[in-house]
Specification:
Helix content is 72%, strand content 0%. It is mainly alpha-helical and 141 residues long. Helix 3 packs antiparallel against helix 4 and helix 4 packs antiparallel against helix 6.
Length: 141
């Protein structure tokens, strides 16, 4: 199951990069000339890194079997009380929080104004609604 998720994330990343490229004029030169590092992009990079830090913490707490629903396939997955799933600063759905942080951070870091005018907010909203829907469905299972 883990290898399939890696393939799916690769396809997802490729689709977003192709969209960024296409909307940006289909030329890396246009993107490179318009993109500049700013305090906004620095904050987006911090958000992206914080999301990945939280995601790594989820993997450490649950392991691959826990992250990829091994319990649904008959694997023995012990309940985790380690941070970020337990403790003083635990989160309800830390892996989805991490994913949303990473998505927002990545898009904010890479997008130009032309991307926001051509659907970046729609893509972000849909992406986050997918994570929210998955988190809600897990509460019902």
């Amino acid at each position: 199951m883990a290898w399939w998720m890696v393939v799916m994330k690769g396809i997802q990343a490729l689709a977003v990069l192709l969209w960024l490229w296409n909307v940006g004029g289909g030329s890396g030169r246009i993107w490179w000339e318009r993109w500049s590092f700013s305090s906004y992009r620095a904050l987006s990079l911090i958000l992206l890194c914080a999301g990945q830090y939280l995601n790594i913490a989820c993997y450490k707490a649950l392991g691959l079997e826990g992250i990829y629903y091994g319990v649904r396939y008959g694997k023995k997955v012990p309940w985790s009380y380690a941070w970020p799933y337990g403790g003083k600063f635990s989160l309800r759905h830390p892996q989805y929080v991490a994913s949303v942080m990473t998505v927002w951070g990545t898009m904010a870091f890479l997008c130009l104004d032309v991307h926001y005018l051509n659907g970046a907010y729609t893509i972000l909203a849909f992406w986050i609604l997918c994570y929210l829907g998955t988190a809600m469905s897990e509460d019902l299972l």
